[in-house]
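Why does residue order matter? Because the sequence determines the fold. Keep that principle in mind as you read this record.
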Amino acid sequence: MSNILIYKIPDSLSYQTMIAELSQKFQIKKNPPIHHRQTFFDTFDWRLFSNGLTLIREGNEYFLSALLTGESSEKSFVKSKQVCKFWWDFPEGSLKASLKQFIDVRALLPLAEVETNETDLLIVNEDQKTVLRIQFDNCYLIQQNRRSEVFNCIKILPIRGYDQEFAAVKNWLNQLELTDETKPIFFLALAAVGKAPGDYSSKLNFTLQPEMTAREATKVILQFLSNVIKSNEAGIKADIDTEFVHDFRVAIRRTRSALSQIKGVFSKDIRNRFKADFAVLQKASNHLRDLDVYLLNKQKYQHMLPEHLRPGLESLFRHVQTERRAEHKKLVKTISANSYSKLIESWDTFLFSAGEQTEAKNSNKPIIKLARKFIVNAYNLVIDAGNKITNDSPTSEMHRLRIECKKLRYLLEFFSSLFPEEEISLLIRQLKKLQDNLGDYNDLSVQQKSLKKYLETITQENSHPLQISSAIGGLLASLYQQQQNIRGAFAQTFAEFIGQDIEKIYQKLFA
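Structure:
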């Protein structure tokens, strides 16, 4: 059976004229027009779009819609007129569950609002049986509650077993010179407001060529990361969701890692200057991220405690929320300052222009050779650090291994396009398992340290000090037990990482 076809009707052709002509060629039934006013939503990093979906709001109803077919799956009716921003703002049901799976902690952002007058025609045969559906959409873009750009579409919806009628209508469209199939209204609306679906992702998305010089390839990597940093500035200032700060921080950390690990590509002066500047910038967001993690884990922390101890955590989270507001203001002040603007401007001048002419020892070497060398060295450092860890090793050695794993992960991601995708993906997945173990262990250490610090601030002047202390004490005990369990799983996790199958791939690709 033929697929659904959608065409944009040119301005020179009236859709009313097309309906009249269809009536002369075919026996049709015309349903009453239906009026829609819809707003399309997605996250800043297009998580719904990447899964072939968009979220649509019409009145007080939200529904997930497949981008290509327009078919709706989960729906939810929201009584409040307030727009739902996060998945947890929705009523219980399948839509809420799906959004939790797809968007996680990201906020839903309105992309475009469209007013549509939909006219549905049914082409029937002699037995008055419907053999084809044709839908005319007269669409207006709504901006600041005013109609602006208009675009008309015709959608042909085939019915199984009636391909001949479908072909006849398609031929009629060809005669009208509507030969170019277009995309659903979602894409037309976004194009009208100047948005390109999928135009942002924090995931490294560039292709390096083996014959590139090390300097050329490194600049490609750093240019991508610079764009990620700048793309998140507005979201941080508006405090839309916590992932803007997270992506901002990761891009800075990757930038510093590239400057440190891809050695001998730029002069020492350039490398040391920007490493120091970006280190200061990253430090400005460290505490804010820690506080965000606390707040995102609020429900998880509450479930760790018996119900009678949970009220004692409310004081802690009020304190964290207050501290978070102060830290957010500090970061906004930092990225609004002239010093930040000058850093980004000088960094981009270096990256996107001819930049530094001084050559370093590796500047003109093929990137493929250096990539292999750097990855092997980083892999060996991970193996050495991991093999030294025993059941009695201090936390500092776990922390050192975590840092070495992070360096290896960044190198694998930077240079992944130079090597077979399947094998690189396997190495990254296996490394991520080890990183998750080490990262969870470190996070629990940081959380316990912060809780102990907060515990010291509790006095008799606090409301219900004993209740607060008991709750934090219970939480500390639970976090400590979790940390011990994670530490106990380390040996097996590391053994899998250094297994022969993984080692053979490293030898094959990089030796």
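The domain at 202-360 is CATH 1.40.20.10 (CHAD domain).
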